[in-house]
Amino acid sequence: MFDKTPMHKNPLPSLFVSALLTACCAAGPATRPAGVGEQVPSEDPAVKDLHSMGLIDGRVALFRSACPVRDLVKGATATRPSESAVAEAIGRMRHLHDDLGIRTDFSFQTTAPAGDEGQPGEQAAAVALERTACEAVGIRFVSRPIANSGPGSLQTMTDAQALALVDPIATDIRRAAAGGGVLFHCSAGHDRTGLVAAWLRITAQGWPLDQADAEMRRLGHNWPKYSDDGGVTSWHERRLRGMAALAAAGN
């Protein structure tokens, strides 16, 4: 559930409370330009959709992205990646370690035989390959699966269940940043990643919900794909608002 214990034993910032109240009272997502998908170029040529989230708890140590090895397992059917794929994955993770200071890597990808993005087995193959590459270069790999759709997913969860899933992940990400840079991602870096990033924007940086939601869409959240109201909003966005309402109410 929502952890009201401050990271550094300070009183809960008034800006944070204000942001949560704004989230509870907001009627829906702010008007945005039409279009779905990444609208901002990646900040790193080696990793798709990588973006710095700036200051988190006084540190510039947090990044979001697509899965760094996603393309290396595209259409994967073999249980073991090729030697060239492993070498490329290690090279990318070494770049993140040496050049960006990444020390912890959180993956939200599922490991079910058929993931909710890509071909069956791709996400499981990506998780295995990324774990191997992280271990090779000294990055701690943390698997925290989140499903976009289907049973047990953000689509079918209650707001309380989503809060119980997402808030501890956000707290662990913030704690991990004390030991160096943190990267978190799902597969494409748009939807599950967007939800966690928005929650961190609200809880760690005091952003109003509409601003955090707008960033979700600007950085690629595919709200029409994950919508059951004709593309007006997504269940990711509804979970975000529900989580904020519960948190503000002290639940």
Average per-residue pLDDT, rounded, comes to 84
Count structural domains.
1
SSE succession: HEEEEHEHEHEHHH
CATH architecture: Alpha-Beta Complex
What composes the largest sheet? 5 strands, mixed
Please, how many helices?
7
Write down the overall geometry: globular
For the secondary structure, the number of strands is 7
The CATH topology is what?
A: Protein-Tyrosine Phosphatase, Chain A
List keywords for this structure.
251 residues, alpha/beta, Protein-Tyrosine Phosphatase, Chain A, five-stranded mixed β-sheet, two-stranded antiparallel sheet, 7 strands, globular, disordered N terminus
SSE topology sketch:
Layout: H1 14-25, E1 51-52, E2 55-56, E3 59-60, E4 62-65, H2 83-100, E5 102-107, H3 122-137, E6 140-143, H4 159-176, E7 181-185, H5 192-205, H6 209-218, H7 235-248
Parallel strand pairs: 4-7, 5-6, 5-7
Antiparallel strand pairs: 1-4, 2-3
Helix pairs in contact: 1-5, 1-7, 2-3, 4-5, 4-7, 5-6, 5-7
